[in-house]
Design goal:
alpha/beta; 9-stranded parallel beta sheet; two-stranded antiparallel sheet; 8 helices; monooxygenase; SsuD_RutA_monooxygenase; FMN; oxidoreductase; flavoprotein
Length: 288
């Protein structure tokens, strides 16, 4: 269990839809020895949820009251965000936090809060996946500080330099989320720094997903430049690969570690989560 890192993973809903509350929870998590605080990224959720906070404002508040805790949205649907704006937001937050940002990425879904259809955004999964891949290319180019030239199906960036660069010398670690049985998210995840299979039902399901991603990762490393290393990489070492799992507070993570997990994200029911509940879990301390 010593290799497992632990994160508090909170939906920014109702009682938690206040950046001051998030900052307070982040400070408590750092003091209690947790490794990260990750937040959901949504603009709407189904009933009974009513209030929703912006993840970037909440993460900024958390960064201001912590020094060690890794932070990030888990996960951001890139098809809902302009890549140029997100490049500025991620770099700015990474500079503010002294290199503590991890970017979780997914294609998003309409079924939880009709977040695409109610705002006239792209409803088709395949199209959003293509938009996601384009956005990722733009982000990685922007984080280098060199001029970005991109003419794609969905986005254009015409000779723009994005400065300041992120504080992390090799860019911000990217974790790709996806349902564990879907091939395309696995292939996408293999090109980046981590994989977050959502809605897992068992450690065996995780083990199968990890094996598939590692196969794709071997293929990707043979054909593409390696992705930027994660925060735990040391000079001259091979970039490690992170696998995150979301587990309820009372679930034993050991079988998931055996299946390949490197991060455990403690999750909460988005329809009933309270500030008191999260505080109690934080106070109990992380898995070790």
């Amino acid at each position: 269990m010593t290799s497992l890192k632990s994160a508090v993973w909170i939906p920014l809903f109702d009682e938690l839809a206040d950046p001051r509350v998030v900052a307070s929870l982040a400070a408590a998590a750092e003091e209690a020895g947790w490794d990260a605080l990750f937040v959901w990224d949504h603009v709407r959720w189904r009933s009974p949820v009513r209030a929703v906070a912006d993840p970037w404002v909440a993460l900024t508040a958390a960064a201001m009251v912590t020094e060690r805790l890794r932070l990030g949205p888990m996960v951001t649907p890139l098809a809902r965000r302009r890549p140029a704006v997100l490049a500025r937001q991620t770099a700015s937050l990474d500079v503010l936090s002294n290199g503590r940002l991890t970017l979780g990425v997914g294609i998003g879904a309409d079924r939880f809060g009709e977040e695409f259809s109610r705002f006239g955004d792209e409803p088709d999964d395949r199209t959003r996946a293509a938009m996601t891949d384009e956005s990722l290319d733009i982000l990685r180019g922007a984080w280098t500080g060199e001029p970005v030239h991109h003419q794609g199906t969905h986005y254009t960036v015409n000779d723009v330099e994005f400065l300041p660069k992120p504080a992390q010398p090799d860019g911000i670690p990217i974790w790709i989320a996806g349902f564990p049985g879907n091939t395309r998210p696995r292939r996408r995840a293999a090109r980046y720094n981590g994989f977050f299979p959502v809605n897992l039902t068992s450690p065996d399901e995780l083990a199968e997903a990890v094996a598939a991603v590692q196969t794709f990762r071997t293929e990707a490393l043979q054909s593409d430049p390696p992705a930027p290393p994660s925060d735990s990489t040391t000079a001259g070492s091979v970039a490690p690969y992170d696998v995150a799992v979301a587990l309820e507070p009372d679930v034993d993570p050991a079988p998931y570690v055996a299946a390949g997990a490197t991060w455990s994200l403690t999750e909460f029911d988005p329809h009933s989560v309270t500030q008191a509940e999260v505080k109690a879990v934080i106070a109990d301390g992380p898995f070790r």
